[in-house]
Design goal:
alpha/beta, four-stranded mixed sheet, 14 helices, 30% helix, binds ligand EPZ
């Protein structure tokens, strides 16, 4: 099992380029099931979750021709002849985003059977809102032996209101509604950039979607969808992670091939904390040292609020800030697993329900630590970059799910980091 070995103390300096967004690539790959024609996706991130979902599509009968070596990072996917509508447990258990095949399979094949995704480190992660939406579209939903079955001869457009903002729930229902009869309106829809990116692909395939990126999305059903070519948006969470890495090491880091507008909440919060972030052009931002790092409260919210996927990284930063920062995690019920490991490095953090109270500035000491989930892994890397001495992070298979070659990117910025098998 791979480990990362990091020696802290050096400010990061230089330029890093952001990879394609994992959380956009996943629904985009699932959307390829909606057509018999070939869909070509570019700027795919070479991370494990992408390979896992491409593997699931092949189990379902789709063909995927991928080229991760060329700069284009291309995958041409053709779901012309599907041989199954079942997403098996052994695949779904490794990646809950496999539930994203439910909507496309239901719309195209009239049925789907997907292993219920278990919970994960950050919460129980139910999919009740997905299933309630499918029922609204006329599907029959049942479950047995850990699987959920959805079936409908032809989906009927409907008004769907989400009790909670759900990113993959919005994506699943938007995909299903593209082939439903009549109009579907999604209310209290997620507004993440990944939703808009998916709508761009679906419309290029012939769908008729309006309002993506707002709380109300309207989909006019069509008879069929065709092929398309689409470039995946940059990963805003990777970009945000590098912003925090530059800030915590008091470095000077230029982040290229990003979308600054997707980073507004992070840039605003860093500015409040005394860390200047400049936009250099429409795809580049630069973080550089400020006079001092000031503790700032933070509350995670659905987009355009501060993303929950950046909460752990921000917590590492706040251990180095002067004062007390109260971090409120509104999205997931158990997303403070990284606190225990930060405490072992010398942080002063108290968890009280949905809030973590971080007292800074506390010097951190290198230690042997365990990653518990994808973003907690990133948080521990940031802490290790400023810790005194060497840190060994174990179980970094979590990290490899969503960050492409992060140790190479950090080495190029001057970090002392290496991977050990
Ligand atoms: C997506 O997960 C992301 N994953 C997550 O990123 C991200 O943290 C999350 O959105 C929130 O932004 C992908 O896009 C593949 P939700 P998702 O449905 O869609 C509750 C990462 O690190 N809920 O928006 O599963 C749920 O329990 C990952 O890249 C229900 O109760 O999240 C949570 O409390 C981690 N019932 C809240 O809503 C449902 O049917 C938001 O969840 C659906 C969700």
């Amino acid at each position: 099992m791979d480990k990362l070995i990091i020696s802290g103390g050096r400010p990061l300096e230089g330029r890093v380029e952001v990879s394609g967004a994992k959380n956009s690539a996943l629904p985009l790959i699932a959307a390829c099931l909606l057509t018999r024609d070939t869909v070509t996706l570019e700027n795919l991130p070479a991370v494990r979750d992408i390979r896992t979902l491409l593997g699931l599509l092949q189990v379902l009968g789709a063909e995927a021709d991928t080229d991760f070596s060329s700069p284009a990072r291309r995958a041409s996917i053709c779901a012309d002849r599907l041989k199954s509508v079942v997403a098996p447990y052994d695949l779904v258990k490794t990646m809950r985003a496999s539930v994203l095949v439910l909507g496309p399979l239901l719309a195209r094949e009239g049925k789907a059977r997907v292993s219920m995704p278990g919970g994960c480190a950050i919460g129980t992660r139910p999919i009740n809102l997905h299933l309630k939406g499918f029922e609204k579209l006329g599907a029959r939903v049942s479950s047995d032996h850990g699987y959920v079955d959805v079936a409908a001869p032809r989906l009927q457009g409907a008004e769907i209101y989400f009790d909670m903002v759900t990113v993959t729930g919005t994506e699943n229902l938007m995909m299903a509604a593209t082939l439903a009869e009549g109009q579907t309106v999604l209310r209290n829809a997620a507004q993440e950039p990944e939703i808009t990116d998916l709508a761009h692909l679906l419309n290029a395939m012939g769908a008729r979607i309006q309002g993506a990126g707002t709380p109300v999305i309207t989909i006019q059903g069509v008879e069929r969808l065709g092929g398309a070519r689409h470039r995946i948006i940059p990963d805003r969470i990777e970009a945000g992670t590098f912003l925090m890495a530059g800030a915590i090491t008091r470095g000077d880091v230029v982040i290229g091939r990003c979308v600054p507008a997707h980073l507004s909440a992070f840039i605003q919060k860093l500015s409040e904390a005394g860390v200047p972030v400049d936009q250099l052009d429409e795809t580049t931002v630069r973080v550089r040292p400020g006079s001092r790092l000031q503790a700032c409260d933070m509350i995670t919210q659905p987009y355009p609020g501060f993303a929950t996927d950046m909460q752990a990284q921000y917590m590492s930063l706040m251990t180095q800030a002067d004062g007390v920062a109260v971090l409120t995690e509104n999205i997931f019920e158990n997303r403070f697993m990284h606190v225990g490991e930060l405490l072992r490095m010398g942080a002063d953090i108290k968890v009280d329900g949905r809030q973590a109270i971080v007292r800074g500035k506390t010097p951190l000491a290198g230690a042997n630590v365990l990653a518990s989930d994808l973003r907690a892994s990133a948080c521990l890397i940031l802490a290790a970059l400023v810790a005194d001495g060497e840190t060994c992070i174990d179980r970094i298979y979590h990290l490899d799910r969503g960050y492409e070659r992060i140790e190479e990117k950090l080495q190029a910025l001057g970090a002392t980091i290496s991977r050990k098998a």
